[in-house]
Amino acid sequence: MKQHALKHNKLPVPGVGQQHPLRHSVSLRSASPPQHSQRSLKGIGYKDRIAEANSHFFIGLLLFLFHTVTYCDSKQDRGYTVAYGGKLTRKTKLTTADWVGCGFRTLAANGPQSLKAEVLAKTLKVTKGSFYWHFKDITALKVAILDRWEELVTQQITAQVDAGSLKPKQHLYNLIETALCEVSQEYETNGVSNALRNWAQFDDLALAYVSKVDMRRLEYLEKLFSQVPQTKRHAKINAQILCAILIGADQLEAAETKACLQHALDIMIGGNRPIPA
Question: What is the DSSP string of 220-233?
Fold first, then answer.
């Protein structure tokens, strides 16, 4: 009788004096299973152990997928993108300038209400994780866009004009040529300044930047007009007129803008347009 019992009980269970009647066991670990009390093991049947194994398997799978997707998302801007199935593939690395450039194009095309992380990420075909790698929030992106715009339409323009012809009159005409490009060449879009001024009508942050840019423009234009004998006397009013024309010129077709600005400058100077050096 004792030999017959041992014949059918081949599976030992650690920590229990007698053998368990199950021939097969399911374990999630390669090492020996943890010690259990006799009372707890007696209540575990085959189906119960299968259910427990499935539960541990799916929990582990979910944790693995969550970790993989989170890791991929956090590495988005470091040169990787998330492919189907959670795998990492190489991609062109995005920079802060890429996001700012996308912000300029989106602003010019659809207005400030479209400056959202989801919208920009979809345009660049990446996840929002890449956006938040560079910017704390959407306000930080807006500040970066406004900072870049201020630099382009003030410092960059004045540096190009000052580096050109030494003739004071030619500086004014060079200013027109440079101002017409603004951010359009760098980001391949037009109407950015006009979109920013529309934005400033209901946004205090944009208004502060636009006011600061206009003040710096007026100061620079007054400086240029004061160097020309014909316009020196009324340098301030001439600066205000040309600044207003530059702002209004954004409403004209690109082909008409240059001719309009040059004609206005001809009138101010007295019809004596200088010959470029």
Answer: HHHHHHHTSTTTST
Would you say residue 117 lies in a domain? Answer: no
Q: Which amino acid is at 72?
A: C
Cα 140 from Cα 146, distance rounded (Å): 10
Phi and psi torsions of 80, nearest 5°: -125, 160
213 lies in which domain range?
A: 142-269
Does the reported pTM lie above 0.85? no
Return the sign of the alpha-carbon dihedral for residues 117, 91, 63, 54: positive
Number of domains in the chain: 1
pLDDT tens digit sequence for 161-192? 888 877 888 999 889 888 877 556 676 677 88
Kindly state the tokens that stand for 99: 């996001």
Q: How many CB atoms lie within 10 A of CB 219?
A: 12
- Is residue 48 situated within a structural domain? no
Evaluate whether residue 132 is within a structural domain.
no
DSSP for residue 86:
S
CATH number for the domain harbouring residue 163: 1.10.357.10
What would you report as the CA-atom Rg of the chain, rounded to the nearest whole angstrom? 35
Tokens at 241, concatenated = 């007129």
